[in-house]
């Protein structure tokens, strides 16, 4: 399912992201690789998204969160 | 051991790299740019154990891919300039993510020292590190530090010198068999071979490519072939572009396809996943976590700061506080500086015996011009102090988060908001701050609209005009209206640019929210000092030059001997006929002097240019006098006030002078006053802004587009307001 639909407080696992290579590499450098665990810290319905990955907090735009698939 | 070594500081953003750099070098640093790209290059030096250490602060990066200019710069520095030691600053309280960069440095095969910074916080969070074990995994010395307290700096320098020494020995050994001193000094970690096992699928392809690269003779001393092969599998643009053989690239693509087929994922993800695998393996063996708490205090603050409802009001309140403090605390020192320059001017005036051109140059041109600008130093210092505090505490990232929703509507994202905020201080650092935007289109749009955020130098213009034309109750709302017009225009222009010439997909927004931290006094003050010094230097160089030029333009060629004689005659007449009424005589004489000054100005170069411009300025309600001041404003906005003063020949005019205000009041309508402010807000940004836009966009095209576009916008807008106002009978 897309990350955008995950409620705050839930823990999910990163599967993949539909994005160009450069962005994929960037996300990987920030800890988002297949299999990594992430926790949704804040998901207010319209604005950007805060997730916790490998101990750091990342802000993801809503568009980004729609392209990230998690389980 | 060489007496001088070069050390590069690498690390993630927010790892405390700059604090450590400042600790080590103090004020012995130098800020410049990497050639060709607009990435700041900070260098400094220090000494330890008889060794001169030349430190280079690399840009903060998350990895060494070719994703952003910063990453390419950091990587190329390490590859091309071959620093003797690379120090990787790691936020120990966020180890796994930070070690990703360390792994890549290890793979590059550089002499590495790892710094576990913020080790106090890591300990407070219950982490225990087995440094010996970790050090073996990464083949590097590890030093624990607490950057903001300055702990561990000596140990860090020792590790750096020891690593450099060891490297020397390793190079010397093949020839001499290693001497005693070398053997004694090698107490470093057992060198790991800097290899990560990428699993059979990738290793097989890596081996093939490594052999191919060796055969084609591409490896050489600069690159290690395994690293090159790995980067090619990762589809690194930079490295690919250096491979000229199409056959080799074809083989690379085949390898990538095979990996994709076998693993079901693209090679980059698999490789990144394996690196994290190596890291978590190392951490499982060498890091113990005794308690399970992370980010707690930070999260609690964020519950308020990034709250859906409270976030925006808190942000607006913070901004108000920043501006309020900037202008209220800044007021008394501004008065002192003003008094000082006033005193300086009058001292020179009384001590200098005779009136001369040189005296006028010193008092009117230099002291008046430069003094008028230095007055704003307290404002600038305070604003940058506030910005440094917001940045160092980590609040700036939250501001970007909060504004993202709004910025999204104009086709930009939250990060663009930070430069706009800095634009209230000064456009030059604001345009430099657009460097944090990865996408070139986003960056250009932000850069182009930043001058619409009313900068500190425009404030004196408003401070002069508003009290002259508007009743007291309107002073604050008027100022607010002007600032709001700027913000709204910036939003509209950004939207327009984004949907016309800089159209394109909006870039996905990814940004780290660093945990809140207490800023250190030292780093905040250092930052403030840097900016303040830049400003003073501008006053001492550019503004000094402009002041002299403007002074010359308004003083030459001066009155013709015939006109001179005419005014002399008038003076004599007054003196003769009002001998019994000295007060009336003085008033009349002053009037004659003023008229004389005005006549002189009209025939001066500036006056003539103003006259030439007048037909063009008419639709906005401006006369030639305002025209000459606008020329000055292009040099630096604050010059407008000084120039209006000269034009109205009321001597040393500053924005508080009543006589200049009453002259304005007598000569212009409130509508014209408003038009002046509007035009100054929107029109041609100052020369420094144009220059920095040219440098940061790397093309004159965009700088001139900004100049032309904003001036045209200002012209049309002001003319509409003036004509509309006249039609409606508003403020005339």
What's this model, at a glance?
The complex is a heterodimer of chains A (71) and B (732). Chain A has 71 residues and is of the alpha+beta class. Helices cover 21% and strands 38% of the residues of chain A.
The overall strand count of chain A is: 5
The CATH topology of the domain at 4-185 in chain B is Rossmann fold
State Rg of chain A: 11 Å
CATH architectural name of the domain at 4-185 in chain B:
3-Layer(aba) Sandwich
- What CATH architecture of chain A would you give? Roll
The biggest sheet of chain A amounts to:
5 strands, antiparallel
Oligomer: heterodimer
Give the CA-based shape of chain B: elongated
Can you walk me through this structure?
The complex is a heterodimer of chains A (71) and B (732). Chain A is built from two helices and five strands, in the order E-H-E-E-E-H-E. Chain A has 71 residues and is an alpha+beta fold. A five-stranded antiparallel beta sheet of chain A has the order 4-3-2-1-5. In chain A, a hairpin with a 2-residue loop joins strand 3 (49-53) and strand 4 (56-60). Chain A is globular and about 30 Å long. Chain B has 732 residues and is an alpha/beta fold. Helices cover 66% and strands 8% of the residues of chain B. Chain B contains 32 helices and ten strands. Chain B has a seven-stranded mixed beta sheet, sandwiched between helices. In chain B, strand 3 and strand 4 form a beta hairpin. The N and C termini of chain B lie far apart (80 Å). The model of chain B is unreliable at 175-181, 183-188 and 650-656 (pLDDT under 50). Chains A and B meet through helix 1, strand 3, strand 4 and helix 2 of A and helix 3, helix 12, helix 13, helix 17 and strand 10 of B.
